[in-house]
Design a protein that fits this description.
This protein is of the alpha+beta class. Helix content is 20%, strand content 32%. The protein is elongated and about 105 Å long.
C-alpha cells in the first residue's frame, strides 16, 4: 500500500513537471507544424518572397545595386540614377539630368518602397491572364496609367524589370492592379505608390532649397534688410540692424527703419523682424517646386518678366555677403488660397510655390507691423515721473483737443507739478495736475498702485502714450494729405511740452467713418514736416476720448 502511494506521488510530480514542458516546448513545435501545413505561397518566375511570407514581384533590390530607375506618367518622364552623397558618403538616388538638386523625403521614400521593395497586397495574384484581361485591368504598355523601368545588378548580372501601373481595385484601401512586362500575371500594390509614381519631376525636389541657414541665430548676422518691388525705385521696407554687445550675458539688436521715409529713425520691433528673418533664412520653404529650369514663357506665367512687377527681398550680412530673393506678387490660386512664387538664381533655377500665410511682411500695407507701438511713440513716452538724477526732463504740460462722439469740442491744457519724494531724491512723490481753465484738479500718489481712486491722471497718461495704435503707414500723396487736413476733420490733437521746453505731439484727421490719418512730430521734426504719418481707427481715438471724459468726470479711467 505504501509503495502504491509513493508511485502515485511520483507520477503526480512528473505530470506537474511535464505541463510547462508541453506549453513551452511541445506546443510551439506542434504549432510550427501547423504553419508548415498551411498552403505555401506560390512563387512564379522572377518573383520572390519577403521573409518567406509576402509575395514580391521581383527580388528586393539593394540601393547599392541600383543602376537606374525611369518613370513615365501623364506628367512626362523622370529618370533617376545613384551617386555617392557628398555629405553622408552613402549611395543615394539622384535625378539623372539634375544630380545636384536636393530631393524631398516623402516622395522619395514612397518611390523606394514601391520599386526597390515591391511587396504585393495579396499573395494570390491573377495568373495565366489573357492579353485582353491584361488590357482590361490597365496593365499593358498601351493602357497603363504609369510605368517604370528599374535596372539593377544581381550577382554581378545586370537585370531589368518594366512595371505597368493599371486601374484601381474595388477594395476600400484603393490599391492598384499592376503588371510586369513579359508576364501574364496581375498583382495588387498599395495606393501609396501614387506619391512616388504619379507625380511630376519637380515634385521630387525639396522645396526647402530657399533656406540659407539652419540656425535661427542667423538673425544676429544680418546688417540690412530691404523689401520692395520692381514697380518702384525705393523699397517699402528698409531696415538697418545694429548689434549691442555691451552686455556680456546677452546680445541684442536694434533695428532702425530707413524706409518708408515717414518712419526714418524709428526703432522697429525686434521680435517681429526676428520672426521674419527666421522665415526667410532658416525656414523659407514652399509646399512644392513647380518648375525646373523654366523658360521665359513659364517665368511670365508665374509672375516673372520684364513687364511685370516682382518682389525683391535683399539681405546683407556684417561680412558683406548679399542674398537676394525674387518673388512674384501674391496670387490667388484655384484652391482659394494665396501663394507667392520664388525664382531662385542658382545654376539650375527653380520656381518654388510658397503659401502666403506667415509672410504678411512681404506686403507694403503691412509695413507698420515692423514697428513696435511704443517705437512710434518713442519721443512721447517720457515718464511723467522723470528720473531727476538721470537728467530726464519730465512733462510740464499737456494740451488736448477732441471732437469725437465721446467728447465733442473739448480743449484743455493740463499743467503738471511734482513734489520730491521724501526718502528717494531720484523720484518724485506726488503729481498735482491743474487745468489752465481752473475747472479740473488731480493729485496722484506716484508710488500708489493702479486702483479705482488713485493715479487717475497717471492712468490716463499711460493710455495717452499707447492709444490709439497705428494701423498702417499712410500712403496718400502730399496733395491728398493737405486735402484731409481741414480743421473740421481734426478729431484729436495732443501737445506735450517737457520741462526743458521740448514739444512733441499728434494730430488726427478723420478720413472716413472708420479710419483717421495721424501726423506725429517731436523735437527733431517740426510740425511743418511730421516725422511719422500713419493711419489708425476712429474707434481707437474715441476710446481715448472716452477715457479723458471719465477723468474729468471723476470716474474710473478705463480703456472701454
Amino acid at each position: 500500500m505504501k509503495k502504491k502511494k509513493i508511485t502515485i506521488i511520483v507520477l503526480s510530480c512528473l505530470l506537474v513537471a511535464l505541463i510547462p514542458i508541453y506549453f513551452f516546448v511541445i506546443a510551439p513545435l506542434i504549432n510550427s507544424g501547423d504553419d508548415d501545413d498551411q498552403e505555401p505561397v506560390f512563387v512564379g518566375e522572377g518573383e520572390s518572397l519577403y521573409y518567406g511570407k509576402t509575395l514580391m514581384m521581383y527580388p528586393e533590390i539593394n540601393l547599392n545595386d541600383l543602376i537606374s530607375l525611369t518613370i513615365n506618367n501623364k506628367n512626362g518622364e523622370v529618370s533617376f540614377k545613384t551617386k555617392i552623397s557628398e555629405t553622408s558618403g552613402k549611395r543615394v538616388m539622384a535625378l539623372t539630368d539634375y544630380p545636384n538638386l536636393p530631393l524631398a523625403d516623402m516622395p522619395m521614400s514612397s518611390l523606394r518602397v514601391y520599386t526597390l521593395n515591391t511587396q504585393c497586397e495579396s499573395n494570390e495574384p491573377l495568373r495565366d491572364c489573357t492579353p485582353e484581361q491584361m488590357a482590361q485591368y490597365g496593365v499593358t504598355e498601351d493602357t497603363c496609367q504609369a510605368s517604370y523601368t528599374i535596372k539593377y545588378y544581381e550577382n554581378e548580372l545586370e537585370k531589368e524589370h518594366t512595371v505597368y501601373i493599371g486601374n484601381k481595385t474595388l477594395s476600400s484601401d484603393g490599391s492598384y492592379f499592376v503588371g510586369v512586362k513579359g508576364r501574364n500575371v496581375i498583382y495588387k500594390i498599395g495606393s501609396a505608390l501614387e506619391d512616388g509614381l504619379f507625380i511630376a519631376k519637380a515634385d521630387f525636389i525639396n522645396p526647402l532649397i530657399a533656406a540659407i541657414y539652419s540656425s535661427a541665430d542667423v538673425v544676429f548676422e544680418i546688417e540690412r534688410i530691404m523689401i520692395g518691388d520692381t514697380s518702384s525705385s525705393l523699397p517699402f521696407i528698409g531696415i538697418n540692424a545694429t548689434k549691442d554687445e555691451s552686455r556680456e550675458d546677452s546680445l541684442t539688436v536694434d533695428y532702425e527703419i530707413q524706409f518708408p521715409v515717414s518712419a526714418v529713425g524709428v526703432t522697429a520691433s525686434a521680435d517681429y523682424i526676428s520672426d521674419a528673418l527666421t522665415k526667410l533664412l532658416v525656414s523659407f520653404t514652399g509646399d512644392k517646386v513647380v518648375e525646373i529650369n523654366p523658360d521665359d514663357d513659364t517665368c511670365k506665367r508665374y509672375g516673372f518678366g520684364t513687364e511685370l512687377p516682382t518682389k525683391v527681398v535683399s539681405l546683407r550680412t556684417y561680412e558683406l555677403k548679399e542674398y537676394t530673393f525674387t518673388m512674384s506678387q501674391k496670387m490667388r490660386e484655384l484652391d482659394g488660397k494665396d501663394y507667392y512664387y520664388l525664382l531662385t538664381d542658382d545654376e539650375i533655377p527653380l520656381i518654388v510655390r510658397i503659401p502666403a500665410t506667415g509672410y504678411e511682411f512681404l506686403e507694403s500695407e503691412n509695413a507698420i507691423k515692423w514697428l513696435a507701438t511704443n517705437s512710434v511713440d518713442s519721443g512721447f513716452t517720457k515718464y511723467i515721473n522723470a528720473d531727476n538724477e538721470e537728467g530726464e526732463s519730465g512733462v510740464k504740460q499737456i494740451t488736448i483737443k477732441t471732437n469725437t462722439p465721446s467728447l465733442k469740442n473739448f480743449e484743455e491744457t493740463f499743467i503738471l507739478q511734482y513734489s520730491p519724494h521724501p526718502t528717494d531724491p531720484k523720484k518724485n512723490d506726488v503729481l498735482k495736475v491743474t487745468s489752465a481753465s481752473g475747472k479740473y484738479t488731480f493729485e496722484d500718489n506716484l508710488d500708489a498702485l493702479y486702483s479705482e481712486d488713485k493715479n487717475q491722471f497717471n492712468n490716463f497718461y499711460a493710455m495717452l502714450v499707447t492709444y490709439p495704435y497705428p494701423n498702417r503707414f499712410n500712403s496718400m500723396s502730399d496733395e491728398e494729405k493737405a486735402q484731409a487736413k481741414k480743421p473740421e476733420n481734426l478729431i484729436l490733437s495732443i501737445r506735450v511740452v517737457l520741462n526743458d521746453g521740448t514739444e512733441m505731439g499728434y494730430d488726427y484727421y478723420k478720413l472716413d467713418s472708420a479710419s483717421a490719418m495721424c501726423e506725429f512730430f517731436d523735437e527733431d521734426t517740426p510740425k511743418e514736416s511730421p516725422k511719422i504719418v500713419f493711419d489708425t481707427t476712429v474707434e481707437h481715438i474715441d476710446i481715448l476720448a472716452n477715457a479723458l471724459k471719465q477723468l474729468i468726470n471723476g470716474e474710473k479711467v478705463t480703456k472701454q
